[in-house]
Design goal:
Blueprint lengths: L1 E6 L7 H4 L8 E2 L2 E2 H11 L4 E6 L3 H9 L1 H4 L2 E4 L6 E5 L7 E6 L6 H8 L7 E6 L2 E3 L3 H11 L3 E6 L7 E5 L2 E6 L9 E2 L3 E4 L14 H11 L3 E6 L3 E3 L3 H12 L19
Parallel strand pairs: 1-4, 1-8, 4-7, 10-15
Antiparallel strand pairs: 2-3, 5-6, 8-14, 9-16, 10-13, 10-14, 11-12
């Protein structure tokens, strides 16, 4: 299986960070949020990735081209340019395709342009700005049982406001940004069959949700996997701070790769 990750948007609501870098490169715990997403997929056995680049894509290219050096001690001979690795650092076994999909391309067309790099008829896809503890093995199994062109993971978003528990004219408790218990949204972490994009031509610059998912829903070709666990997007500066606080406190629910899991993907 391959995971295709949308990395080309401008992230205008997080302008404090994205003025100079693409949103997937905004850091959580000293690592790009993109790294966290890829670690989640690798935990479930996915090592092939296609990154759909656009806005400031060169920063993502540079990150992966220099990934080993960023995590190693090395010496450089300034006269010859020769590098000597003194102590090898962390290395991932990922195979990463860095695909230029255009600065102004909409999300559905980005995925369509990435299809030529996907070797199988079905593939994972997600956005480069959301973290979750989704069981990707269960998601894939659900998709295969439903036999539809696509499956989306539905999640409960966090409230933008704090929630008060009131009794006797007093506030009994206050919970900041609780998870909403009613109402579902598309949380990313999708599975597609390639045929889901058959109706899109090379010049159809369409968004994913309004351009493809809505059409599939009308045709009863869109299944849903309901995830009641952790999910958090990073649309704003406050949400970025929230994710960093969770990581710093050691309470990052999406860090499932530190657990020993037998729920790997099956062929």
């Amino acid at each position: 299986m391959t995971a295709v990750i949308l990395c080309g948007g401008q992230g205008t609501r997080l302008r404090e960070e994205t003025e100079f870098k693409p949103k997937p490169m905004v850091e959580v715990g000293g690592r790009p949020i993109l790294w966290h997403i890829m670690k989640l997929y690798r935990h479930f056995g996915v090592r092939n990735f296609v990154l759909c680049l656009g806005y400031r894509g060169d920063m993502i290219r540079d990150y992966f081209l220099n990934y080993r050096l960023r995590n190693s001690d090395f010496a450089v001979d300034l006269g010859t340019g020769a590098l000597e690795t003194l102590q090898a650092g962390e290395a991932e076994d990922w195979r990463v395709v860095l695909a230029e999909t255009g600065a102004d391309t909409q999300t559905a067309q980005r995925l369509r342009r990435a299809l030529k790099f996907v070797r199988t008829s079905s593939f994972f896809a997600t956005y480069g700005d959301g973290l979750a503890d989704v069981d990707l093995g269960a998601l894939l199994a659900h998709h295969r049982r439903q036999r539809r062109a696509a499956t989306v993971t539905a999640v409960h978003p966090s409230s933008r406001f704090g929630e008060l528990a009131i009794g006797g004219g007093l506030v009994k408790s206050f919970q900041e940004k609780p998870q909403v218990t009613e109402g579902w949204i598309n949380g990313g972490f999708m599975v597609f069959e390639k045929r889901a994009f058959d109706g899109i031509g090379p010049d159809d610059n369409l968004p994913l949700e309004a351009g493809v998912l809505e059409m599939l829903a009308q045709r009863q070709e869109l299944a849903v996997y309901q995830h009641g666990g952790f999910w958090q997007c990073m649309d704003t500066y406050r949400e970025m701070c929230l994710l960093n606080e969770m990581w710093a406190k050691g309470s990052a629910p999406w860090q499932v790769w530190q657990e020993c899991s037998s729920n790997r993907l099956t062929a």
